[in-house]
Amino acid sequence: MTIVLDGKKLSLESEKDFSSRVKKIHLNTNSIPILATILVGNDPASNTYVKMKGNACKRIGMDSLKIELEEKTTTDELREKIIELNNNDDVHGILLQHPVPDHIDERSCFDAIDIRKDVDGVTSLGFGRMSMQERAFGSCTPFGIMRLLKEYKIDIEGKSAVVVGRSPILGKPMAMMLLNENATVTICHSKTQKLSEKVSEADIIVGAVGIPKFIKGEWIKDGAVVIDAGYHPEKCGDIDLENIIPRCSAYTPVPGGVGPMTINTLIMQTLQSCENYLELD
Fold this sequence. Notes:
By secondary structure, the chain is of the alpha/beta class. The protein has helices at 7-29, 44-60, 75-86, 106-110, 124-131, 140-151, 171-180, 195-200, 258-278, and strands at residues 3-4, 34-40, 63-69, 93-96, 160-164, 184-188, 204-207, 225-228, 250-251. The protein has two domains: 29-116, Rossmann fold, CATH 3.40.50; 140-259, NAD(P)-binding Rossmann-like Domain (Rossmann fold, 3-Layer(aba) Sandwich). The strands form two sheets. A six-stranded parallel sheet has the order 1-9-8-7-5-6. A three-stranded parallel sheet has the order 3-2-4, sandwiched between helices. The longest helix is centred in the first third of the chain and has 23 residues, at 7-29. It is globular, with a radius of gyration of 19 Å.
């Protein structure tokens, strides 16, 4: 029987625990966890994502601080705003909404975020520490996927995993997280030769390439665990799920699989950052 890895269900269930933890923080310290979100420019999709994150904060009793900067904002000006938030003890998490305008050095700005407040898992230092299995907040989408696999008791150790995608906040950290759980990992991408052959060998396949239905269902072997981390205006992901659902052992639906876990993990890590700062259990 095929297992549906229901990210929407898990995210809603975990919010009950998050709400209790926020109440405990407020009762013991009179503080409230705060996530600062930075939006540069007027991209409609980015604006929608920031609103969704703000709504998730409200649902569990957290606060969000929305900072909107003009399209013409420079790299230095953005870095100055990030440093200001680093120094604000009331702010426990900082999210710089991706993408920023082309003239801004996004990597420089990501790396300006204090690692203790890097609740989106975007800094180079955070990636390095996570890869070395040291304490750090993980990139939210891959860490959300790992939480989903754990919840549904999907066995990872010793399995062959193929990650199709190499972005610094999804494909690469996804590969490292699977490796840290003792999977044997192959990283592929849109330029990989004989991609279908590599995918066909995978016990676990993660689609994170950013191209609608790029990974064909017939490439995937029977009984594989199928994780689709993509979402496109066509209301589909990176994997042609229609042709694989009857044959796989488990899969993430699109929507309702990986997406809800991304925001949920962001909220979870902001809450954890606040607890770390206040030295609460």
